[in-house]
Amino acid sequence: MSKVSLTVNGKAVTAEVEDRTLLVHLLRDHLNLTGTHVGCDTSQCGACIVHIDGRAVKSCTTLVGQANGANITTIEGISKGDELHPMQAAFRDNHGLQCGYCTPGMIMSAIDIVNRHHSSTGGDLDEETVRQELEGNICRCTGYHNIVKSVLDAASRMKVAQAAE
Ligand code: FES
Ligand code: FES
User: Fold this and answer.
1) Could you tell which of 43, 102, 109 is best to mutate to test the pocket of ligand 1, judged by most ligand atoms within 8 Å of the CB?
2) Is the pTM higher than 0.90?
């Protein structure tokens, strides 16, 4: 057993966990943050993606001990009260989801993609890049077209929001 301290969605969390505990299990089973999903046992689907210190990471392949001291953000932590994150709003407006199972992981990946491309290219993100970047996220429903559309739309919304800050 090990004692870990981390910040999850802005709140300090301390837990005593077995060394083999995965971050996704701490989030879902101990903290009741069930928006982070488990969609495979082969680290392929991306349904479990959260942010660790701002970068998208598969929480099904991260031991809690590896996240000790880190800042974790889950899908539950990205809206501001009732105001959706621009990525969530873009998925809603562009029909970027059907069953929704992959959506939390898609959205957490997509925010990281847009953030990285905003800082490296000033915000220009094209369809091919989004498709390549989302290779670690599997969706069994949508055919990806509206997901890519959502990410590109959100990239514009996030650029406008950043410019206004
Ligand atoms: S549950 Fe993590 S990649 Fe599928
Ligand atoms: S919306 Fe159903 S798996 Fe993606």
Assistant:
1) 43
2) yes
Pairing of strands 49-52, 55-58: antiparallel
- Which residue's CA is the closest to the ligand 1 atom numbered 3? 43
Domain count, the chain: 2
Residue 150: name the closest of 73, 76, 109, 97 by CA. 97
Please say whether the beta carbons of 101 and 39 come within 8 A.
yes
Q: Is 49 in the pocket of ligand 1 (CB under 6 A)?
A: no
In a domain, 59, yes or no: yes
Higher pLDDT, 5 or 160: 5
Confidence grade of residue 124 (pLDDT, cut at 50, 70, 90): confident
133 within domain boundaries: yes
